[in-house]
Amino acid sequence: MKKSICYHSIVCCIFYLLVGCSDDAANRNDLTQTDPLPSWNEGKTKSAIIDFVDRATDPEHQDFIAIEDRIATFDNDGNLWSEQPMYFQLLFTIDRVKAMAGQHPEWKEEQPFKAVLEDDIPTLLSLEHKDLFKLLMATHAGITTTAFNQEVKKWMKFSKHPRFNQPYTELVYQPMLELMQFLRSKDFQVFIVSGGGVDFMRAWVTDVYGIPSYQVVGSSMASKFEESQGRVVINKVAKIDFIDDKEGKPVGIHKFIGKRPVFASGNSDGDLQMMQYTAAGEGSRFMLYLHHTDGKREWAYDRNSSIGKLDKGLDEAKKHNWTVIDMAKDWRVIYPFEQ
User: Fold this and answer.
1) Potential cystine with 218: which of 7, 118, 142, 198 (Cβ 3.0-4.6 Å)?
2) SS3 of 13, please?
3) Residues 283 and 56: beta-carbon distance below 8 Å
4) Which of 144-153, 205-214, 220-229 is predicted with the least confidence, judged by mean pLDDT?
5) CA–CA distance from 105 to each of 93, 96, 102, 133, 274 (Å)?
6) What is the largest CA-CA distance in the chain?
7) pTM, rounded to two decimals
8) What is the full DSSP assignment across 194-239?
9) How far apart are CA 212 and CA 4, in angstroms?
10) Cα–Cα distances in angstroms (integers) from residue 226 to residues 103, 143, 233, 242, in the given order
């Protein structure tokens, strides 16, 4: 009997197997002299963030945090950029299948490729995990990391979001760009810790967020060193290497960063363990959840969503008095193109 699977499960399968700053990013992330978070409305959320940073960077304050310990981690999907109507990496995967279909005429009659080629979303939603894995093997493995990086960059350059008709890199959250830059200006090291594919994100994070590619922790496929015809390359292999989601996030932080964060930001239950790991450390800590409450300018979803579900995390945030961003109330603008 087939096992039904939601959008979130589709993308989790994909992410589990996936794996200086440009002028544009610098312009986007400029801080004003008077207000480090100009796209945030005045209120308790903005005040709580600024107050934490002020305390953490004041050598005379009991909550002072040494520069070497100022580690901030941010989830990506739904936290730094939108994740609706599907995770953007899933859309990339679908487009890759379509682009490669000419070399694989058998895909017209073979699932799950047939469903992708026919834009048959209901069928995709009912596929078993083993069928979804086929999409990954075909589109993310058997390719060098350099070639994959180029494919992602090309897709980012020419693809546009179906609702906003903007490049996906324009669907980043302006308030979060300002927050990351604010933290960096105060000597915090900002890392992305995401369930998304690390190779997918590394292709564009520096240009878009101003974050070095080596400060990205994500899910990954296995890879291997190869030398062929005088060329030395790293090839992506169709095998799970690391899953950076839920319990995997604290493990990834320990494995790749080596220090417990003092600031953690996410938007879903998949980020809860990262929040708990951050909160469990000694000294001053800041946990920040983004609640999607703006159905007009973006999307409104939380407990019952198949993408970016925020249920237990919302309860834990209330229980422990973590800061929760109300997108509709706390953000003056959402995207850079709205300014």
Assistant:
1) 198
2) helix
3) no
4) 220-229
5) 18, 15, 6, 19, 44
6) 69
7) 0.88
8) EEEEHHHHHTTHHHHH---GGGEEEEEEEEEEEEETTEEEEEEEEE
9) 38
10) 25, 12, 5, 21
